[in-house]
Structures are given as C-alpha cells and as structure tokens.
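Table S2 (text version). Query chain:
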Amino acid sequence: MKFLEAIKIALDSLRAHKLRSFLTLLGVIFGVMTVVAVASVIQGFFSYVNRTGNQILGANTVVLTKFGIITSFEDFIKANKTHRDITLEDLDYLREHSKLAQHLAAQGNATAEVKAGNALLRDISVLGVSASMANITTVQAEIGRYISPVDEERRRYVTLLGSEVARQLFNTTEVLGREVKIAGLPFEIIGVAKEQGSIFGQSQDNFVVIPISVYQKMWGSRRSLSISIKGADKTNLQDLQDEIRMLMRTRHHLDYSDEDTFSLVTADALNNFFQSLLGIIAAVALGVTSISLVVGGIVIMNIMLVTVTERTHEIGIRKSLGARRKDILMQFLTEATVLSACGGLVGLSVAYVIARLLSALTPIPTELPVWAAVLAIVVASGVGLIFGSYPAWKASRLDPVVALRAE
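Corresponding structure-token output:
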C-alpha cells in the first residue's frame, strides 16, 4: 500500500465519524495546547530577561556591590558578615587606578515619601547618583536635564523625576522649576526622565534621582553604595571585571586564598541567574503539562481498538483481496498518526491565540518559538504512532476467514 493512499483512507475514515474523531482529538488538543502555551510563556520570559538585562545595569557595565546576587538567606548572612561596604573612597580609588574603565559612578538607594501640594506618594525609590551616572545608566532626561557635577559638588537640592511620579503628582510632565518634597525636604525639579516601561508588570518609572552628596546628607554616609563601571569602547567585559576584582582585592589587602569581600554583577550574570531559575520552573511545568499528552494517547488507543472491532469485516475483505499484514498495519498506524497530528495542529492554533491574548491583555511576555511549533506536531504525531501501534498490530493479525464471518 502506498503511503499517500493510506493517508487518503485515514482521512476518509475520520470524515465518516466526525463527532467521534473530534472527541478523540480533545485529549491531544488540550495536551498540545497546554504544552505549547507554557513553552511560549517560558520562551517569552527568557527573551524578556535577555532584553532587559542591559536595561537594568547598562551595556558593557560591571556593577560593584556589597551583596551581589543573593540566592539564599544563608548567603545574605555570610555576605553581611564578611563583605565590606562600598564607599565613595572606593570610587575615587578605582578612578585613579583603572585603565579599562571609561566612566565610573556611585549610586545609593532608599525609599521615601514624595509630596507635591496635596498629592502624596509613598515608597518611591530614591536614587542618589554621581553626575557621571548620566554616561552609564539608561535613565536619561527627556525634559530638562540630568544631575550635573555642580549639583553634586554644591549639594543642591534638585531632582530628576521618573515620568510616572511626575504624572501622579502633577498630571503632566511639564514640571520644570516646580517643587516637590522628598522625605519632607524641598527639591527643585530639573528634569523628567524618559519612560522606561515595565518589567514583569512592575513600573520602572516610579523613582526620583538626586545628587549623591545630598543623598548621603539625608541618609548618612555609612550606607553601602554600588559603583557602576562602564568599559571603554571595544573593552572586553571579562577583562574589565577581572581588573576591578584585582584592584578591589588589592585595596582590601586580600591574600591569594582569601574570598572576595565584595561582589561584581554584570548583565550576563543577571541573565544567567534568571534563566537558571526559569529553567527549573520550565522543566517542572513542561513535565506536568506533558501528562495530558499521555492521556490523549490512551484515548486514541481505545478508539482505535473500537475501530478495529467495527471494521473487522472490512479487514477480512481487504485480506481476501490480497492485502498483506504490513498493508493493514500501515493503514491503521497512518489513521492513528493522522488523527493525532490533526489534534496537534488544532492545539497549536489554540495555543497561538492564547499566547497573543496573554501578551495583549496582561504583562506576561510570550513568544512562540518555531522549534516549539515543529516539536508540537512531531510529538503529537508520535503519540498517535506509539499508541496506535497495538490496535494496528491487532488488526494485521486477524485471520481473514474469521474476519469475513464477523457481522
């Protein structure tokens, strides 16, 4: 029997029993739909993390911090005991000795109430920055200007507002020269930042920027800072990271065998952390949702066994006309595979629609990769092939004389 002829017979059989075929397909449809939908969400998160890594830290940038990426409470306790605070003196030291760094800037973080007239915002992120941070960060002024060296040196009470803060306080971003109170102290607005958007549904425009000299005056100079170091053009990021590590180990008088008393973070390290976390979630989620494909395969096997019983007389006629065992085997295997593949196509289409709706209506990022679409069809066809093997084998083993007597 030719393969195309087997497919034609399989499709004719499916059309002859439309309702039963649809009910049989439900298991495979839901199985493929859930697996592909989960895969698209996971792939969306992977791509989203890759795109936003540089946005968070800055391109070609190493960030020197006290804690770094903390993955457990034990790591936090250890770092808190053994790591030293990062200070402005560290910034001056790196500026003096680093040969690969093009721009260096310190940043402190706090939260405070921000008020303008009767409008009050709580828990707003306050970023105290060096003026040179303008050359590193993705936060740039869209209206007005960034913090200047003069602002930093003279400890001016000036601020750059995030776009969301400006809109919530004044219902507009045209706010240059107006006054806001940060932690109860008056600041002149010198600019409004370009909109950063959101990450995982969390707004990135809910902040105010002030000079680091004013920040330390308000919250004290004993708070640990972070130092962002941007490499010169064409500088290898690993070389820059190695240089900063060597300089800080020298500054902290560490022996060769001593552990670092500071942490270095890059966009790649941040991406790898999130991807390893998402990889565990992905493995569990895909494993659980794949169970539905097994259920769909069992349903296909049951229906194919019923089909073999119903068509026993047909099998007898085909064998009496010269059909061989392998012809009968191919016919029923093809029918099971085509049935399952059709379910896979329908499930893939539904998953695509769900992914598009999630992206449009929620902050959840989705991306349907080509490999997931191809794999869905291959797996769905494989399910039909595997679970259709026994019914097909049973059909091919029927005795033609006995089959012809069947009613």
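Notes on Table S2: The chain has 14 helices and twelve strands. The chain has a mean pLDDT of 79.
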